[in-house]
Amino acid sequence: MQRKIDFPHTMWITQHTIRFAFREEISQENFQAVQQFNRFLKKHLQQNLIESVASYHTVTAYLKQTKDSIDINFLQKQWLIMQVATKDNEVISRKLQIPICYDEEFALDMDCVMNYTGLSFEDIKKIHMSKSYSVYLIGFLPGFPYLGDLDKALFVPRLRKPRSSVSASSVGIGGLQTGIYPLDSPGGWNIIGKTPLNLFDIHGKEIFIFSLGDQVQFYEITKQEFYEIKSKGV
Q: 20 to 30 A Cα–Cα from 166, which one of 2, 44, 70, 204?
C-alpha cells in the first residue's frame, strides 16, 4: 500500500511567486514527494506557470498572473484525488555509472576522513561505492550534483577552511552527501577521489552530465585507466 503524501505548506514569496514546502529534511521520501508535486504543478498550472523549481524539500512556482489567480483549495482537492488514483509514486530516472579513481594524487582529504571516521582506506572506498545516489539538487556551480544519501559511516563535516581552488571532476563528501565539482572552484568538501569525466561541456550535446532525479553509482578505476579515459576527452 502506497504512502499518502500530505499537501505541502504554502507560502507566498511575492505576488507572482509561491513556495510549497514539505518536511525540512534530506531524504528519499522527501525527494519522491517533491518530484511528484513538481509534476503535479506543471500539469495543473501549465497555463499560468512560467517555471517551477524543485529543491530538497520545496517547490517554488513562478507565475504569469498574481496570487489571486491561484485556487489553493482546488489544488488541495486535486492532489488528494491524485493520491488516491496513483498506484506508483516512484520517479522514473536514469541510472548512471561514474568511474572514480581514489589514488592519493586525487584523494586530498582521505587521511582526514580515515581519522575522523576510524575507517580504513579500503572500507571508505567500499562504502562509497556500495550504493546508488539520487541527484537531489544541482547547484552551487553549474552542473554540481548534490548526491544522497551518503552512508552514515562516512559522515564527516565539511572543511573548516574551504580550499581556494578545487580541480574540476574532484569527488567530495560532506555531511550525508557526496558531490562532484564540474569546474575548478573554491570548495569545502572533503576530496576523496576524482572522475576522468567532464561534467560540464558548453559545446556538447548535453551541457551537463547530470539531471535532477538521476541515480548515480560510482565504480573504481586505476590511475592508469583514469588518464586513458581522460586522454579521450570523454
A: 204
E strands of the chain, at which residues?
Answer: 9-14, 17-21, 49-54, 58-63, 95-100, 133-138, 145-148, 163-166, 170-174, 177-180, 185-187, 190-194, 215-220
What whole-number distance in Å separates Cα of residue 192 and Cα of residue 166? 12
Residues 2-47 have pLDDT tens digits of: 567 889 999 999 999 999 999 888 777 888 888 889 889 988 888 8
pTM: 0.77
Could you give the CA distance from residue 109 to residue 183 in angstroms, rounded to a whole number? 19
Could you read off the pLDDT of 53-80 as tens digits, one per residue?
Answer: 888 889 999 999 888 888 899 999 898 8
The model's confidence at residue 234, banded by pLDDT at 50, 70 and 90, is low
Q: What Rg value do the Cα atoms of the chain yield, rounded? A: 20
Q: How far apart are CA 217 and CA 129, in angstroms?
A: 7
- Rounded to an integer, what distance in angstroms lies between the CA atom of residue 220 and that of residue 50? 42
Q: Is the pLDDT of residue 128 over 50?
A: yes
Tally Cβ neighbours within 10 Å of residue 207. 13
CB atoms within 10 A of CB 194: 26
Confirm if 45 and 69 have CB atoms less than 8 A apart.
no
